[in-house]
Amino acid sequence: MSPSKVSTIKFDEFFNVIDGKNRSGKDKHQGINPVSGEKLWDLPVATQQDVDDAVVAAEKAFQKWRYSEMSERKKLLKKMKDHYMSYADEITELLIKETGKPRQFAAFEAKGVAGWFDHHDTLDLPEEKVEDDEKVITTRYTPLGVVGAIIPWNFPIVLSLGKIIPAILTGNTIICKPSPFTPYTCLKIVELLQEVTEPGMIQVVGGSDALGPMLTAHPGISKISFTGSIATGKKIMAACAPTLKRVTLELGGNDASIVLPDVDVKKVAPELVMGAFQNSGQVCVATKRIYIHEDIYKEMLDAMVEFTKSVKVGDPESGSLLGPIQNQMQFEKVKEMFADTKNKGYKFAVGSPDVASGKGYFIQPTIIDNPPNDSRIIQEEPFGPIVPTQPWSDEEEVIKRANNSLSGLGACVWGNDLERAEKIAKRLEAGSVFVNSWEKPTPQALFGGHKESGIGGEWGKEGLKAFTNPHVIHSYKMK
Hints:
By secondary structure, this protein is α/β, with parallel strands linked by helices. The protein has two domains: 16-251 and 453-472, Aldehyde Dehydrogenase, Chain A, domain 1 (3-Layer(aba) Sandwich); 255-442, Aldehyde Dehydrogenase, Chain A, domain 2 (3-Layer(aba) Sandwich). It is 36% helix and 23% strand. It is built from 16 helices and 24 strands. A seven-stranded mixed sheet has the order 14-15-16-13-12-18-19, sandwiched between helices. Strands 9-8-7-10-11-22 form a six-stranded mixed sheet, sandwiched between helices. It has a three-stranded antiparallel sheet with strand order 5-6-24, with no helix packed on it. The radius of gyration is 23 Å and the shape is globular.
């Protein structure tokens, strides 16, 4: 924050934000600092009445905002970006507290969302015309109404503003529900955006997972944008059916990386490790399975093990590369995966089969050497810092192995022969495939999954349409 800026925003008090006003509540909830296990600040638990009031305010704001010009919307986004960025340091501190992310990665998330604002400033909704002798057909894209955004705990800033920005640009209003595990950044972002937006345009209700069903059932909400697990995504889709809400579901993945035999092992090994262990493996699109050609399998695995041993795990201020698992629930799930892998007798190439319980939810990054295809570590998404490797020899067979999953979010192919790598990439059943890079979603590209990894997609030029209805006018010429 600029030293000359005078602000009324306090970063140790938290509220739901409804109709432009901070609102407290009778019941309180606290997040947990995953580094220390200590409770963080109180925040109110929103009620059904809070949700109802938010929808009324959002509908009222929508009736005006829906008719705004694109130039007006972009002007507002510029104000939102500038105002948000003036608080980026304070938001970074909140993110560190609620997620335990190492400082450099927390700062990257908190400040990197400027790129989402900037890219959306370059976008416009298309207007398509088809004309023949008797008529002109014009297709435009009009806003849906009130959007309900249900946000996960792994990237609470990117995945809240990543929904807010396109919703506002397309003429909608939006109500956010942050995860109870990481509520603080989203609550504060929405609060500070009230200083540059009209009441009811952007609101937030938090405190309990019970709020999700309140949003999905509400007849005044036109769309649910959800990022989270496959199991919850299925429940949301079913809950939206009675009101035929539009849904975008960005769900879990079991991303495969295929490594061709012509790669530079020393260069690629650290990249494979980072793809698997970024954010302590708590990334829906992180690498979850690594298939390495048999000719370089041992050499690559040895290089990965060596790099993994150098990766520091620790608190945000220790210069660590990886922080803790964000919450105890996920910590216990990852421990179950470790226990299953140990009990089945699979080989730990690096990392301990026994996860130490102590202060904070820390787990050392772990590589499992060649477990069987039917093992849990191959079949399931651990969402933690543990990854299996397997050798391969036949290209057709490894493509089938990579595609043998109900998930289809992301995938990677690594090879110096770019033509060969891209041919394989085209055959991988995933929404986003990366060649010679680990998975790095960007606001420039549509992001969504195949199979059970989701419905629809957001971001990029095409992603704007997810917040709109096509509206077609058929104009016949008078004879």
